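Q: Structure for this?
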Amino acid sequence: MSSDNKNSEVLTPLPDEAAPVARWEGGLALLGGLWVFSVRFFKTLARPPYEFKEIIRQLNMIGYRSLSLVSVVGIVIGAVLTMQSRPTMIKFGAEAFIPEMVAISVMRELSPVLISVILAGRVGAGIGAELGSMRASEQIDAMDVAALDPFKYLVFTRIVACMIALPLLTIIADLLALGGSWVVEKIEAGMTVSLFIQTVVNGVEFSDYLPGIAKTIFFGFTIGLVGCYEGYHSKGGTEGVGRSATDAAVTSSLLIILLDVLFVKVTLMLWPY
Amino acid sequence: MIHPFQHHNHDQGPKPNALVRIEHLAITFDKPVLRDVSLDIHKGETVAVLGKSGTGKSVLLKLIVGLLTPDSGKIFFKDKEVTALGEFGLMDIRSDIGFLFQGAALFDSMTVGQNLDLFLVKHTDLPPKEREQKIAAALEMVQLQEAIDKMPSELSGGMKKRAGLARSIVIEPELMLYDEPTTGLDPVTASSIAELIVTLQQQLGIASLVVTHDLPTAFTVSDRAMVLNEGYAIFEGELKDLEKSEDAFLHEYLAASRLDRERHDRILRARERALAATQNPKAATKGTARGSETDVKVLT
Ligand SMILES: Nc1ncnc2c1ncn2[C@@H]1O[C@H](COP(=O)(O)OP(=O)(O)O)[C@@H](O)[C@H]1O
Ligand SMILES: [Mg+2]
């Protein structure tokens, strides 16, 4: 006779990895589930009060604790892009435009997308694992029993925190990337800070940085939504927790990259060159 | 507290004296889990639900509080149809039901005291002073006063169970649902939890449904039992009649449980001998105290 309930749950074979048809069905079910979760998010948004304390706590977990990772990535993007583009720019006699070129590439595309994809890994997987283990340990059920709406308390707060943290982190990455770029320019060509800033300010328009920052609000929404969805619907006990974390990271990165195509198209339509 | 139960017919409509009435419950996930389960629980009564792992015992408990919705069948709690209630109706009945989850399900991010307080805040309108008193009383009942400011991660398995128990009784429910209250605990802690359940039932007059696959627990806490197998209630009646049943599965189940109990006792005796053999008597008592709160997975 099997003895421990938990063990037997882990050993239960999971209906997965079946025919490709089943995979497609799984994908559609996921999109359907995400849609339902989004609708619920906006319904919760329309019904204050919110759990502000929990939102602040999540901002700390999601935002503040990602700061060092984001800073390193920001500096490196700026520096590397400058080093890579210098030879080509010099060949075309456009050395003076390097700061502007770097600023535009970083702010429009590189920093929003790279930061979001990296955070899809760190934050998305973290949320998936956290909610997954709360599901496995029945804490989510206990919240329901306590009349503490788990969607409002867990899901809504995390999505909101992601939507606030992502643009802020992107702004920080943007600025640090410019710093990284200037350091390379300083070393290679002895460019002064004031000249660097002047070149950037003259060359960059609001349509270069605003859409880039704005889209990270949507990427943040995606990370929070997918992470919470995967964790909330985690199945199969402890083993399911790992799967929720991985699925959250993979699905949200993929969605971010696909959404980005859409955003680029929209941005170019609204602000044509 | 024992109710004559032999010949009743579940199709008579809700009886006024049944606290919980379960009628022809069925639910299917990947495969059928419950096929046709009916049960009445009366005020102040304790009923045990027995059965192997994976037979849907936890599912049954979750159906009763509306965490899951059945495919067919009905559940009444105090003559309210749980299966037809909306969000607010469910909130209302949940303030009368205590649920001890298998792993206690304490909220990780809060202290034990905050865990209890949260349930009081959500289910009552009591001012902070009175909530404090209720929390202290509930923790005293499970002898866990000193853990009020501890985080769940600092507690042992047995302490978590007791804290979970305190959290579910602090709202003074009329019905307690226990999911495997003694599973995963060593025999000493397990029987102390079982005794606690009896005490609560006698002191507070709470009706209880105790899910377990451990017969000794069932015998300690209840007189009436239901045995689930393959989605059906294959036995329902007084525990002492369990032995008389002709059912082959029940015989096997009882035999296995008895073996289990013998193994418990053998290991327990061996441990006592080992402790007695320890030269330093101080170390020996220390060992017992700690041992009683350690999870001994192999025993259950
Ligand atoms: N929310 C759920 N979704 C899908 N399957 C579930 C769910 N809850 C339980 N099950 C399945 O129902 C069966 C019975 O589970 P459970 O009630 O936990 O058994 P036990 O009698 O050991 O408590 C198991 O096969 C389990 O996998
Ligand atoms: Mg169970």
